[in-house]
Amino acid sequence: MRFFYLLRIHHWIKNLFVFIPAFFAGRLLEKDIVLLLGQGFLCFCLMASAIYILNDYRDIEADKVHPVKKKRPLASGKVSPTLALVIMVLLFIVSLGWSYSLSANPTFAILVLVYGVINIGYSLGLKNLSLVDIFLVSSGFLIRAVAGGILIGVIISQWLIIMVFLLSIFLAFAKRRDDLVLAQTSGTALRASVRQYNIEFINTCLALISGVIMVSYIMYTISEEVVDRINRDYLYITALFVFAGLLRYLQITLVNNDSGSPTKILLTDRFIQCTIVGFVITFLIIIYI
């Protein structure tokens, strides 16, 4: 179980962003596409786990005084730093080698490498720069989505790129808000970048970004490009689930003050789970039936 938490396998769900292009292109039911994207998904999972280990290694001392992170394998001493570093290097090598073997086009492997380099920079100190940390986290989600499209040869629409980027910024700000609330409660800024944020600023950003996401999604569903491609003109119906999911996430963030882990929210909040299931089913019916 200690290695499960060391690799943060429960966070691998974030790498499902590689499937987004296939889903919106109506190709998610093609066996070859799913198998190829499944391998791409695992490449990003291994790279992400390598970065998690590096981040935990550098933050051992800080995590020891964190009310939650002190339980992590390295901070708690359940895994030795030497063993963790060996695992990290192996994961990095396997991820890059595997991603390079998936396609004659090296672009996918290059994006996996870029994702790793960006996150190494994040772990080595860029996460301490306010706003820079937000955009670096967001770029990781965007890279995964673009990489998924490149791997299967699907062109990603401008609206989809905008929505993925905005959604990832929204989630990053919500997480920083939780960091800020925790810092105010404990009396210590647990992240250096938190000192450059305050509740009012983050609340304003969340409200602004969520509004832009909603408008962007509506524009996507009624754009001529999408309507002509799927030969359907009522995709806008799915916007109901997008709105409901965003509003619920805002409620968790602003009312419950519990947005520290998007993964935890996704795996435990029944309302958001229902909106996702409703969105997927409705979208599949419109696209595939």
UniProtKB/TrEMBL annotation:
Transmembrane stretches, start-end: 12-29, 35-54, 79-100, 106-124, 156-174, 201-222, 234-250, 271-288
Compartment(s): Membrane
Record has Transmembrane helix as a keyword: yes
Top-level taxon in the UniProt lineage: Bacteria
The keyword Glycoprotein appears for this protein: no
GO biological process terms, semicolon-separated: glycolipid biosynthetic process
GO molecular function, one term: transferase activity, transferring alkyl or aryl (other than methyl) groups
A Pfam family reported for this protein in Swiss-Prot or TrEMBL: UbiA
Protein name per UniProt: 4-hydroxybenzoate polyprenyltransferase
PANTHER family (alphabetical): DECAPRENYL-PHOSPHATE PHOSPHORIBOSYLTRANSFERASE, PRENYLTRANSFERASES
Keywords: Cell membrane, Membrane, Transferase, Transmembrane, Transmembrane helix
A GO cellular component entry from the record: plasma membrane
CDD domains on file: PT_UbiA_2 (cd13963)
Membrane topology recorded in Swiss-Prot or TrEMBL: Multi-pass membrane protein
